[in-house]
TrEMBL record:
Residues 181-371 form the CheB-type methylesterase domain. The modification 4-aspartylphosphate is found at residue 74. NCBIfam families: PRK00742.1. InterPro entries: CheB-like, CheB_C, CheY-like_superfamily, Sig_transdc_resp-reg_Me-estase, Sig_transdc_resp-reg_receiver. The active site is at 193, 219, 317. This is Protein-glutamate methylesterase/protein-glutamine glutaminase. It comes from Aquisphaera giovannonii. Involved in chemotaxis. Part of a chemotaxis signal transduction system that modulates chemotaxis in response to various stimuli. Catalyzes the demethylation of specific methylglutamate residues introduced into the chemoreceptors (methyl-accepting chemotaxis proteins or MCP) by CheR. Also mediates the irreversible deamidation of specific glutamine residues to glutamic acid. Its main location: cytoplasm. GO terms for molecular function: phosphorelay response regulator activity; protein-glutamate methylesterase activity; protein-glutamine glutaminase activity.
Amino acid sequence: MTPRDRPPQPPPSPPPPQSHPTIEVMVVDDSAVMRQRLKAIIESDPTFRVVLASDPYEAVAILSKSVPGVIVLDVEMPRMDGLTFLRKLMRQHPMPVVLCTTQAERAVTALEMGAVEVIAKPDWTNASRLNEWSASFVETIRNAARAGRLPVRDDRAASPGGEARHSADVILPRVPFRPSPSITDRVIAVGVSTGGVQAIQQLLTGFPPGCPGIVIVQHMPPDFTQAFATRLNNDPKIQVEVAEARHHEPIVVGRALVIPGSAHGLIRRAGTGYRVELADGPPVCRHRPSVDVLFRSAAQAAGPLAAGVIMTGMGDDGAGGLLEMREAGSLTIAQNEATSVVFGMPREAIRRGAAKYVVPLDAIASTVMSWHANPDAGTWF
């Protein structure tokens, strides 16, 4: 048979799609109903496979045989509470832990102990919000897995009820900075996410009582930011006053304001200085409050009189806003990789050319204070 007589050959088969490694997630909760609900939500993303434990003792038995990539942990459980288990776990076998609770004080304690994320338990009776919560929860698991340096597919479509991704435009239109001779105060805007509780604690210890006013966006559920601010304010190593921000609250020297977890935070001009404005609206870069919104408002309100600091966290929230700050003449700083729990947010800011300086965590405050001591803000452009 000649080649011409041979029947046509079928085209070669396409290569099989690249497979993604399955990551094991352990859910530790004494409620069987809660365990099954969380399992169904997590496994809606095929990246994850869930194992269940009814209490910390069962979790320890599972850990003796295999080590999961992420642990989802409840607080109130029989025989051993979640915080006791977390403390022992972080001493013996540190790993990414997500706390799922409604108890704000204990959530902040868990983050101080080393939990990488905290998410409030949902209202299971509110079906209209459950899809949004489920998508946020799966994203939280992804962030925790990445914090453990595990490969995770970044497939947003895999999230149940995947929401549209909004930019800062939905909250604050982009306009250029316009200087005002009446504005003389300086202001510091800080954005942080995964690993941020300990990072913010260390950052604030470096500021003296006479530092410019500080506004902080820490990605955290509603009702938890008040407990976080109170904890910071009671820290004897921190010399500045810390409080959860209120609508139209003045930004003053020696005071740090934490934006509530239920609203976007903006810096607005007020007399010779600034005040905080809290705004409702959809999540921006999948977060409310959003670092992008805060940084854009700082660029517009203060320009070269503002300093922007982006720190440890997953994703890209804040990268675009920090670039706008730099273009407006602000001092812009990104935390370096070696001191970040997750380098996602700082890395993206650096990639876009938004960060004037990349420094370790313990050098950020001194860098800002050197800028504050320099009367010629324009040299930082």
